[in-house]
Design goal:
This protein is an alpha/beta fold. It has 2 domains: 10-146 and 273-313, Metallo-beta-lactamase, Chain A (4-Layer Sandwich); 153-268, Metallo-hydrolase/oxidoreductase (Rossmann fold). Helix content is 21%, strand content 26%. The chain has helices at 55-64, 153-157, 176-187, 197-209, 221-225, 237-242, 276-286, 299-304; strands at residues 10-11, 16-18, 23-25, 33-35, 50-53, 73-75, 82-84, 87-93, 101-107, 110-114, 136-141, 166-170, 192-195, 217-218, 231-235, 249-254, 266-268, 290-296, 310-313. The strands form 3 sheets. The protein has a 7-stranded mixed beta sheet with strand order 7-8-9-10-11-18-19. The protein has a 6-stranded mixed beta sheet with strand order 1-2-3-4-5-6. Strand 2 and strand 3 form a beta hairpin. Helix 1 runs antiparallel to helix 4 (197-209). The chain is globular, with a radius of gyration of 20 Å. It starts with 9 loop residues before the first strand and ends with a strand. InterPro entries: MBL, Metallo-B-lactamas, RibonucZ/Hydroxyglut_hydro.
Length: 317
């Protein structure tokens, strides 16, 4: 194997830059060439001269950025390689949300795998993750802590089942709300899912682009108040926080973060990121020579692999 270039991908104030291919990944400000791993706002921005992402990622971005310029978009299909300068690039599903991609980059015989956000747990609403080997794994480390273990999602969602009140369920608009809708549809078909208007368009895109058809209705106050108390109203975080005095409903927020469970009536630990056990499993399958950590704290991984594997934070300019 050729030498691993420690500056192959570096972090600057804009995003993650590869000078060997002259492109960014998940840039936060307009650049000439930007690869977008998925459509969440902390990864996907508009205004770049050329953007490379999956069709689903661009569909979600167009919903958010209606004035997105069409000729800046380069749709990339999973497992179909393309080249920027001398770097050969392939997208693989990341299992995070619909259209989310891992970015495999090969340069001078060395493979660098940027995970973006990813999960291993089953999720019928998005493409399952594909495991591929790489020499350098550039992994998110959101929950890279031995103290974090995500429970089975079926057990968590069923906490909403036997309640005599309607439920207001806080969750992120893109990805999480659609996953929760599918879980409720499958495991509690007697429950009626109502979605906030900001989620409604995204749900429709999931039904158009994904393999799982979601059953839901657009929220209205009358529907929530009338009839049986079998309704679960999905709302984004800002709305959830503004309804902290809501009456006649049980409050829950679906997240892997413990701090977001405080002061709620029901704790729902459902995350769309890998936990400690899953990140170790993923590293074992990728078989990297080095692990570079991003989006979190890599200290626990560094300690765990001390003397076995090089683990470091990604370089900064």
């Amino acid at each position: 194997m050729n030498e691993i270039l420690e500056d192959f991908l570096v972090k600057d104030d804009i995003g993650y830059y590869c000078r060997y291919g002259d492109f960014y990944i998940d840039a936060m400000c307009p650049v000439e060439k930007n690869i977008i791993s998925h459509a969440h706002g902390d990864h996907a921005t508009n205004g770049h001269q050329k953007m490379y992402a999956t069709a689903a990622t661009f569909a979600f971005m167009k919903n958010k950025f209606p004035k997105m310029v069409e000729n800046t978009v380069e749709v990339i299909t999973f497992e179909q390689p393309f080249t920027l300068r001398n770097v050969h690039i392939t997208f693989f599903p990341a299992g995070h949300i619909l259209g989310s991609a891992q970015v495999l980059m090969e340069y001078q015989g060395v493979k660098y795998l940027y995970t973006g956000d990813y999960k291993l747990q089953e999720d019928a609403t998005c493409e399952p993750i594909i495991l591929t080997r790489a020499d350098v794994l550039i992994t998110e480390s959101t929950f890279a802590n031995p103290a974090v273990s995500h429970p089975a999602v079926e057990k968590e969602i069923l906490k909403l089942k036997d309640n005599s009140s309607n439920i207001m369920l806080g969750c992120y608009t893109l990805g999480k709300s659609q996953r929760l809708t599918a879980l409720i549809n499958d495991l509690m078909p007697e429950k009626e899912v109502l979605v906030h208007h900001k989620m409604y368009a995204v749900h429709k895109l999931y039904n158009a682009l994904g393999n799982k058809q979601l059953r839901y209705t657009l929220y209205n106050r009358k529907a929530m108040k009338d009839g049986n108390t079998n309704k679960i109203y999905l709302v984004p975080p800002l709305t959830f926080n503004s309804y902290f005095k809501a009456k006649n409903v049980l409050r829950a927020f679906a997240s892997g973060w413990e701090r977001l469970q405080r002061q709620n009536d029901i704790e729902i630990y459902i995350s769309d990121h890998v936990d400690w056990k899953d990140i170790l499993y993923f590293i074992d399958k990728v078989q990297p020579k080095q692990v570079w950590t991003i989006h979190g704290d890599g200290r626990h991984l560094k300690k765990h692999f001390d003397g076995i594997l090089i683990v470091r934070d990604i370089l900064s300019n």
